[in-house]
Design a protein that fits this description.
heterodimer, A: alpha/beta, six-stranded mixed β-sheet, four-stranded antiparallel β-sheet, 9 helices, B: alpha/beta, D-Maltodextrin-Binding Protein, domain 2, 2 domains, two-stranded antiparallel ribbon, 6 strands, 67% helix, 7% strand, elongated
Chain lengths: 297, 426
């Protein structure tokens, strides 16, 4: 069953196409990556899904319903622009948000305690929000996204501002939710996070869909393998356009992209002739790589 | 409904629970009494410093009676105006004047008066001082000299001043207010004061609570909390919740004041009687029930009108500074209304008063004023209320369309054509 379906959705701001004829659908229980560089149309797409802005054209169907405001309470949304009432106490704030999500008070109190415990914030319940550190505020915001047990969770850049420990905590919870059958949409420009977490992706560029589908499938179809190469000496062969399309020097090693139809073995052969090779590894294309290739095409 | 109620509850509780609300509720009555009474009280305060005034009396008749008439005393019983007669002849007048100026510069005297020989014909007296803007002092001196000069004139013409005074005494106007039921009440100017205070409170409340709605929205925008909220609650409910919640704060404050005032008035007549037995027959001004009902009605309607307008401004701006710039048209409505209060009070039935008291931006203040000072035709009151209700409805429709888009806009402030477009397409 599809949790979310977009059909030919477009949105313009003046002459600018923020989202252009976008269609995709997300199956229940998927961790779905909505990708693209800044300004690709991710946030606009999400806002249309949340019925915060209305599309100019196209249809959006959520949990089998056309009117998304009707299913609002069954969605959890963490916007990119985060905000809390700083003067309120943590418990009061959560209770307020639970009411805006249509939860019953007794039920809400139980859920609030559970999640505060789960995210290690219990002792802060009676403190004012402004007394919390930024990381704790982020966790608090995350609670408001999930504590009403939504069927669909939309996270817009959830990892910004979090330290590695909390990033891991968040990832764990996301995977836990997914295991319980919740569908998660993760919108980010951090390709490596998506690569680790998501089953399926949709790649946006300048408001248009450029790639969509299961991640493994995309990697096989679109990506071309690259070579991680570490060496000592002067590598003139890297400038040979017949052999090598492009290379990125990362300091410790060089990522080498073979030219069309070139066998990596041929490159290894040349390399050994010119330099002392300490590492030669054929790597699957990173999502980042796929993105750059796709956009540049 | 639960969502709307959650917004209302939050707006209400976060405000009522603050120290600012408690202090405001306590201090507002003090503040209002202060600004209505203080200027007059300060004016009436007597100088405690004696003033040394040199008197050049070219008539040679004014000094004696004047020092008798100008007999204001300080609290310690000292004369405030200490007159010093300066002998002067007309031919050496300039020299005398220069000497007096030198005396003022050396602070030997504070001022000097010159009464010319022809004062009985020209009425002119010169008063030279370093400070000539003390109205109380000027008018006391003027009145005293006038009295003396008039008396001398009467005597010259062969009248007996005391008899003339008796004959030209002015009459005293006793005012009675006729209430709606035809009941008459002796009025000692206090009912005017009460009405004035109520109008002033209404005016302040509309400005303060209206602006509070605006600031609440700007705050949510700055906090970036707005997107979290409108992902759960319809923008219209957010706007309505803010307006209702803050309006309820205002009403709470009024009810506290009304309860305290009611409690005091129960006992105040006894209090006054025990302190001033003679004042027992002067009825204390009371606020009629209908006046209270209209006060609450016009506050609620006026508040909806202005706070909706303010909500629209709040949605359009990104900071308090920008809000300050954009709110001047709203404030100028209220200021015009307040400036027209005195005119309306004196001419409650003029065409201008009728016109302004039914226009929605002025009616909350001016129609309430008219109802308080005199009973306007029911049709006019009904017209004002109906027009106000319709305008509030139109305003909500209009602002809701701006609000929905405006609250998500950051950065550049939209210009007028853009706003018009939002309203058309919203």
């Amino acid at each position: 069953m599809n949790v979310l379906t977009l059909k030919n959705v477009s949105k313009t701001f003046g002459d600018f196409y923020a989202v252009n004829d976008l269609s995709f659908s997300i199956a229940s229980g998927t961790m779905y990556g909505l990708l693209g560089p800044n300004g690709a149309g991710k946030t606009t797409t999400i806002r249309m899904i949340m019925d915060i802005i209305v599309p100019d054209q196209g249809e959006i169907e959520i949990l089998g319903r056309r009117n998304s405001s009707f299913v609002r309470d069954r969605i959890g949304y963490l916007p990119e622009e985060r905000g809390l009432y700083r003067k309120m106490r943590v418990g009061e704030l959560l209770l307020f948000f639970s009411q805006t999500k249509g939860m019953k008070k007794a039920d809400a109190r139980e859920k609030i305690d559970f999640w505060l415990e789960h995210l290690d914030l219990s002792e802060w319940k009676d403190k004012k929000v402004e007394e919390l550190s930024r990381g704790m505020q982020q966790k608090l915001q995350f609670i408001t996204t999930v504590f009403h047990e939504p069927e669909l969770i939309i996270l817009d850049e959830p990892f910004t501002g979090l330290d590695p420990v909390n990033v891991n905590l968040l990832k764990e919870i996301m995977l836990e939710l997914q295991k319980n059958g919740v569908t998660v949409i993760l919108s980010t420009h951090l390709m490596d996070q998506v690569e680790k977490l998501c089953n399926s992706i949709c790649l946006l560029h300048q408001g248009k869909k450029v790639l969509e589908g299961p991640l493994a499938h995309i990697k096989k179809q679109v990506g071309r393998n690259s070579i991680a190469l570490a060496y000592e000496g002067t590598a003139r062969f890297l400038r040979d356009a017949r052999l090598i399309n492009r290379f990125d020097n990362y300091g410790n090693y060089v990522e080498v992209h073979p030219a069309e139809g070139v066998d990596p073995q041929e490159i290894l052969h040349r390399a050994v002739q010119e330099v002392t090779v300490s590492r030669f590894e054929i790597v699957e294309p990173s999502l980042n790589e796929i993105f750059i290739q796709t956009v540049q095409r | 409904m639960r969502k709307l109620f959650a917004i209302i509850q939050r707006e209400y509780l976060t405000r009522v629970k603050t120290k600012g609300f408690v202090i405001g509720t306590l201090l507002m009555p003090v503040f209002i009494v202060f600004i209505t009474i203080a200027p007059a009280a300060f004016m009436a305060m007597k100088s405690e410093e004696p003033r040394h005034i040199a008197l050049v009396d070219l008539t040679k008749q004014v000094y004696d009676p004047l020092s008798e008439t100008l007999d204001e005393r300080t609290k310690t019983g000292e004369r405030i105006y200490q007159l010093h007669l300066v002998a002067a002849r007309s031919d050496r007048f300039e020299e005398v004047k220069n000497n007096l100026k030198a005396d003022i510069n050396q602070k030997k005297i504070d001022a000097y008066l010159i009464i010319h020989q022809d004062v009985f014909e020209t009425n002119n007296v010169e008063y030279h001082s370093t400070n000539v803007s003390n109205f109380r002092e000027n008018s006391e001196i003027e009145r005293a000299i006038s009295r003396v000069v008039t008396k001398l004139r009467l005597e010259r013409s062969g009248f007996v001043p005391d008899e003339v005074n008796h004959l030209v005494q002015s009459v005293k106007l006793n005012t009675f207010k006729i209430g709606p039921g035809g009941k008459e009440q002796k009025d000692v100017g206090l009912s005017f004061a009460i009405t004035y205070i109520m109008v002033f409170v209404l005016y302040l409340a509309l400005i303060l609570y209206g602006a509070m709605t605006m600031r609440s929205i700007v705050e949510d925008k700055n906090n970036r909390v707005i997107e979290v909220i409108i992902s759960a609650v319809k923008p219209f409910h957010l706007m309505a919740g803010k307006i209702l919640g803050i309006g309820a704060v205002g009403l709470t404050q009024f009810f506290i004041w009304a309860a305290v005032a009611g409690f005091l008035s129960l006992y105040s007549s006894n209090l006054v009687a025990s302190f001033l037995p003679s004042a027992g027959d002067v009825p204390l001004p009371s606020v009629s029930l209908s006046q209270l009902i209209f006060f609450v009605l016009f506050f609620i309607l006026g508040f909806f009108f202005y706070s909706t307008l303010y909500a629209g401004i709040g949605a359009l701006v990104n900071s308090d500074q920008e809000a300050q710039q954009l709110q001047w048209p709203v404030i100028s409505f209220l200021i015009v209304a307040f400036l027209l209060v005195f005119y309306t009070m004196s001419n409650p039935d003029s065409n201008l008063s009728i016109l302004f008291s039914v226009l929605p931006m002025f009616s909350p203040i001016l129609m309430f004023m008219r109802i308080s000072v005199h009973t306007p035709p029911t049709a006019q009151v009904a017209a004002a209320v109906i027009i106000l209700i319709l305008s509030v409805w139109a305003m909500i429709w209009f602002v809701a369309r701006i609000f929905r888009i405006g609250i998500l806009m950051y950065g550049k402030r939209p210009n007028l054509p853009e706003v018009v477009k939002w309203v058309k397409h919203g």
